[in-house]
Amino acid sequence: MTTKPRVYQTQLAVIGSGLAGFAAAVFALDKGISTAQVGNTGAIAYTTGYLDLLGGCGEQLLEDPWEGLKQLRNDEPRHPLSRVSDGEIQEAFSLFTRALSDMGINYTKPGERNLFALSPAGTTKPTLSVPETMITGVTAKDSGARTLILDFVGLKGFSALELVSNLRKSWPGLTAKRLEFPGMTTGAQLYPEVMARALEVESTRRQLAEMIRHELGDAECVGMPAIMGIHLPDRVHADLQRMVGVPLFEIPTMPPAVPGIRLREMFEQTFPALGLILVPQQKVKNVDLGEAGTVLSLKDSYGDVVIETRAVLLATGRFLSGGLHADRFSIRESLLGIPVTQPEDRAGWYRKDYFDHRGHPVNRAGIEVDELFRPLDASGVPINEGLFAAGILLAHQDWMRQRCGAGVAIASAYKAVEALSGYLS
Ligand SMILES: Cc1cc2nc3c(=O)[nH]c(=O)nc-3n(C[C@H](O)[C@H](O)[C@H](O)COP(=O)(O)OP(=O)(O)OC[C@H]3O[C@@H](n4cnc5c(N)ncnc54)[C@H](O)[C@@H]3O)c2cc1C
Fold first, then answer.
1. Strand extents, DSSP E, 25-86
2. Among 14, 119, 392, residue to substitute to test ligand 1 (most atoms within 8 Å of Cβ)
3. pTM, whole model, 2 decimals?
4. Is 368 in the pocket of ligand 1 (CB under 6 A)?
5. Among the four given CATH numbers 1.10.10.10, 3.40.50.11270, 3.40.50.300, 3.40.50.1860, the one describing domain 120-251
6. Tens of pLDDT along 111-159?
7. Does domain 6-106+262-424 fall into CATH 3.40.50.2300?
8. Of 245, 206, 248, 252, which Cα lies nearest the Cα of 226?
9. Ligand 1 contact via 43 beta carbon (within 6 Å)
């Protein structure tokens, strides 16, 4: 028996559910554009939760991302961030972080300077905005507060001792302790996501708080891996903090990590209530671009899905998320076959020295867009008037080296939604 496909009609379809796709959906809903979104798990589950704007320029770490942007516009005019003004970036970050807070995860207000936030290895990285559950780690480090760092028996990839030994020179008031996580004391491997869900239960929080109080000594605050709940982490954090009696903060763990999973689950829960048609955990299989509109086809566990839309925003990421695909000879864009700017041949993908401060050309491969963020064909003409693109799929940026992953995603999504809103009106 064949069942009829579910057919949706919208003004906009967002392909991709990473930071760029989610930011685009936030901006589109804010403008009252009827929107559908399709995407499965991608790089977002790996992120620290920090929202970087621009943290690196050559070998230098940037304290002032806005100064860095001036330099970037001069040195790299084709970088996606060079195509967005400071005012637009500020507006994009502030709309996005406000939406995150409204939906249930508080973020710090993006400011004038980068915050130097903790990594799981005990280094720091420049970033513009962090989850509220992590900000005390930044301020405690800056003030040199006496701080106890905790880890847990069975939790791999997060060592309080490693973190303390790497930071102690600049932060002498650090100590490390290892605890057994309540109810998970067999010594078997523990996973942050499971611990985070366990801490949503009040009795687990009470037991953990008692263990922490016992180890506190003269510590003024306590840092621990990011496990304070998946849903409503600010509430879990506040409650645990109240029970322990000193400020607590989270430190991101190695991927896959709770802060990204939180974001994904929060969007998936709140978007449908805001009127967005969400087809989660699926990939678009076919895109039929037309003059008057576009038809997307895919399948989910209920059968075939067809989305008829006037505009499409492509935010499918790079290799990890499947937006780009590399074989032995070249790199291609996976869904529509959009031309990819890339080194002439594979020999040009990498430099000889892995740590070459210029980075590797393969990391700047991606698709070209015009000033309205519409993907271009090989002759430099927009492929379709209603097709737009955003995120790290775009060429001429090296988000990892330049520490600008969220910056590229949020700023380009903002610009693309501004442009497509003009197209739709
Ligand atoms: C280990 C790690 C750590 C990171 N840490 C930070 C950090 O500290 N700060 C920071 O700012 N950024 C960080 N990032 C980067 C950040 O997570 C995002 O990768 C980045 O912001 C780009 O987002 P994007 O939406 O362009 O792409 P992605 O996040 O890669 O999202 C692309 C999406 O498209 C979907 N997709 C692909 N093909 C299809 C299809 N055919 N149909 C439907 N959907 C499709 C994928 O499933 C995915 O959901 C980190 C990334 C990694 C991997």
1. 35-39, 56-57, 60-61
2. 392
3. 0.96
4. no
5. 3.40.50.1860
6. 999 999 999 999 999 999 999 999 999 999 999 999 999 999 999 999 9
7. no
8. 252
9. yes
